[in-house]
Amino acid sequence: MLAKKLTFIKIMKECEVQNLYNLEETIAKDLLIKCKYPWEALPKIEEFIIQLGKKLDPEIYEEKGENIWIAKSAKIMESAYIQGPTIIGENAEIRHCAFIRGKAIVGNGAVVGNSTELKNAILFNKVQVPHYNYVGDSILGYKAHMGAGSIAANLKSDKKPVTVKNGKETIETGLKKFGAMLGDNVEIGCGSVLSPGTVIGRNTNVYSLSLVRGVIPENSIYKKQNEIVEKENRPE
User: Fold this and answer.
1) Quick one: which of 99, 130, 190, 216 has the most CB atoms within 10 Å?
2) At the fourth CATH level, which superfamily is domain 2-223?
3) Radius of gyration over alpha carbons of the chain, in Å?
4) Cα three-residue angle 202-144-76, rounded to 5 degrees
5) What whole-number distance in Å separates Cα of residue 165 and Cα of residue 9?
């Protein structure tokens, strides 16, 4: 019983904001720092953007529409669709036919690519979702990258609240829509599907064409379900 309790505590710790993200790499720091677990921020993104947008430096940001603030240095293709509330950071790139449905923060130097769709999401600085990605109700850490065609599914087929699972251990979130929480420097292979409630620790790689669910430890390689190995060379 004690071992089971300790395992559950370890899982809970891995999912905490402080163990997933460098909050110095996002304009959403003041939102996330108040949360123990990152998914707690999901229902608060809209209000946070509206309040923060009004305070942004007009020398750096322009208000381009109702509750839409875009850095003057950002590169936005004419074919991209952007709905508010949204903040797009400095030197970000929004490519051809990107679809930003609102409640989105795109960090400095981030890339939202061709036909990629965002909704109720936070992208830290230098995140890349460059090719045919869906990112709904998710938070992607510093330099996280989703390969072509990979998606963060955010709704269970039975429409029940999403839980975070690791084996038989479960964390109730109370959220009907919850995609994925990707830690800093996570690499998602092409064509992968992240099931609702997926949490992936820092510096972890996921093989292409993977179906991922639950909590995946930091500094690991996800080959397939029940085959996760520790990286030999961890980042310093």
Assistant:
1) 216
2) Hexapeptide repeat proteins (2.160.10.10)
3) 17
4) 160
5) 13
